[in-house]
Amino acid sequence: MTALVVFTHPRPDQFATALLEATVEGLSAAGHVVDVIDLYRDNFEAAMAPTEWRAYATPAATDTVGIESYSRMLAGADVLAFVFPMWWSGPPSMVKGFFDRALVPGVAFRLADNGRVSPGLRHVRRVVVVTAAEPPGNFPQRSTRQLAHALGRSLRRATGWRTRTLVCWAGPGEASNEEGRRRFVSRTRDRLAGL
Amino acid sequence: MTRRVLVVHAHPDPTSFSRALFDHVGQVCREVGNEVRVHDLYGAGFSAAMSANEWSLRGAAPSTKPHLVPYFEDVAWCDTLVFVYPTWWSGQPAILKAWIDRVLANGVAWKVDESTGHVMPRLRNVTRIIVVATHGRSRGANLWCGRVGRTVIVRSIRRLCSWRCRAHWLALHAVDRSTRFERDRFMQRVERVLRRIS
Predict the structure, then answer these.
(1) How many helices (H) and strands (E) does chain A have?
(2) Which helix (H) or strand (E) holds A132?
(3) Bond into B66 cis (ω within 30)
(4) β-strand partners of B166
(5) What is the pLDDT of residues A139-160, one digit of tens each?
(6) Chain B 1-20, CB below 8 Å of chain A: which residues?
(7) What is the ipTM of this complex?
(8) Does the beta-carbon distance from B54 to A149 stay under 8 Å?
(9) CA B36 to chain centre
């Protein structure tokens, strides 16, 4: 059983690091071998290049330099976890770039000649989203939370219908004080250990 | 009324339909006498990730990020924001999300009120938002996925604009299967909206 954790933070502070550790510990406790991708440490380029765009619907889509190792890790994952801060009610551009560039046809799904899409990551049983709202936050929180779920929904195109999504989400009330953050970190660890 | 229009565009391919829409938007806006500024993110080589340095300056004044100041000025100048982009994975392309993350920063798009801790809008100058989005998937599929792209713009960004700001959502679904006729019709629809608001 393998879990792949995609971590994003431009400068991991104590809270971000603690969340990553809790995710890794939780998933290990559940019996997974955990791989971690740190997009900022890898200097991942988030913007899809014009050449990649032109190659998108062709077999050359998987040839992108710098993506091979991600494709390999994705191919063996049973659990796919994303750990990121919530910016503008969604994942940061880095995570979006991972979707755009790493989850390409041939890796995440297959494009048939008639335009039909079939999932390529059926082995992923669970999608996990661990995220905390960036305070300040009197933003519409309900839609923010829905968007964390939306990530799992759009991923079903790659994982198939039976994959379920687990969202560990800290609202601004919780993420803005020490006590709330500690509680959220330990709750995340416990929930993931139960997977 | 002459409008001040800022067009933000993100598509890697200069021969794409999204690019054609972007060119058409600029052309129509100039024709009707609007002032137009454009942020062609791929053309400008915009960085698609917030750097660690920018992150640590997130509470500081906008002038501490001199490389972004021209973008900040355009955002403060415009009264109409137009986004032209393809929808990927039910949201904006990464480079456009980066524009939202980096340019709509503290002190530019919002400011925290010290006493209440609430977010105070700073985009009061924006009275219209127009989104011209192409989707690979059908309308139903996009709806089921939660319309991520729409929520970010129509809920989160509009909230920081003028209280009477209207958002026009112009979407062409299933663009990969679309016919020439449908694309032309969509382009005319975009043009109609642009002419109507001017």
Answers:
(1) 7, 7
(2) strand A126-133
(3) no
(4) B128
(5) 656 566 677 778 888 898 899 8
(6) 12-14, 16
(7) 0.92
(8) no
(9) 14
